[in-house]
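Quick review question:
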């Protein structure tokens, strides 16, 4: 643990001394959250009931709303089409939050090993007794931990903003009680850390195997596809993620974290990587 913590401290010295990195971690999540809040806010004020009824006439949207009403039913008073649409967007928030650690990983993790190569700091690091898995796990955690904390911060900010936008009956009946509240909790406490660590491990693999930073980022684009798939299957009504299903998904993702770490150690090729990069 001491070796891993030393790697994390070293990486944080690089990450948090850069103004560009600080702005990236701050502004990117803000844009993701702001877009969702803007759609939810202006849906009722600009589109209105008639326009939203046309949108929700789409069979996929109807199926998603039907699933949502079944799972989130709390016996409250009937809600309007606008409120149904807004609630549908809220139900996607926990999955959109997964975009924050994955997109941060695309920037930080893909440059992790490449930057070591360019600054010639990897050679003395590999000469130390640190094990390969300790090095890679430390690098992954150094990015995943701040990304998870930032995600939690913006999740709280989103909840506060939603409270100001939506009627009180939706807040009390759906967001603060019932299934949706548990979906938020499971996603933030389990899925976000698991997906964050997985994203950074995959980013480090792409960084260690690519010949330049651009190639590393191109490989890392595949990190974000599974998150979009989760959002797509829920919005389309194909699957509605219950708390239990999310727990199972988090367990599977955690197992993938371990397997991907083992794969990263094998692909790193510590003995030959310095020779190959020269």
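Suggested answer, residue by residue:
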């Amino acid at each position: 643990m001491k070796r891993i913590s030393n790697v994390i401290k070293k990486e944080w010295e690089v990450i948090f001394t850069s103004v560009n990195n600080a702005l990236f971690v701050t502004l990117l999540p803000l844009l993701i959250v702001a877009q969702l809040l803007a759609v939810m806010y202006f849906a009722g004020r600009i589109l209105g009931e008639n326009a939203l009824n046309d949108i929700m006439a789409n069979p996929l949207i109807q199926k998603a709303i039907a699933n949502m009403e079944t799972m989130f039913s709390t016996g409250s008073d009937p809600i309007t089409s606008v409120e149904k649409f807004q609630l549908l967007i809220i139900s996607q928030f926990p999955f959109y939050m997964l975009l924050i650690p994955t997109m941060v990983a695309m920037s930080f993790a893909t440059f992790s090993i490449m930057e070591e190569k360019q600054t010639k700091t990897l050679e003395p690091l590999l000469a130390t007794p640190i094990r390969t898995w300790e090095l890679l796990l430390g690098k992954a955690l150094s990015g995943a931990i701040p990304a998870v904390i930032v995600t939690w911060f913006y999740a709280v900010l989103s909840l506060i903003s939603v409270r100001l936008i939506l009627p009180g009956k939706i807040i009390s009946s759906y967001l603060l009680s019932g299934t949706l509240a548990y979906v938020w909790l499971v996603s933030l406490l389990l899925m976000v850390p698991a997906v964050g660590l997985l994203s950074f491990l995959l980013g480090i693999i792409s960084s260690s195997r690519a010949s330049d930073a651009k190639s590393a980022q191109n490989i890392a684009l595949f990190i974000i596809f599974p998150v979009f798939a989760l959002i797509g299957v829920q919005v389309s009504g194909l699957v509605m993620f219950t708390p239990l299903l999310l727990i199972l998904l988090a367990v599977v993702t955690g197992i993938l974290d371990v397997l991907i770490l083992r794969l990263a150690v094998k692909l790193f090729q510590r003995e030959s990587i310095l020779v190959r990069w020269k």
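Why it works: The radius of gyration is 21 Å. The mean pLDDT is 76.
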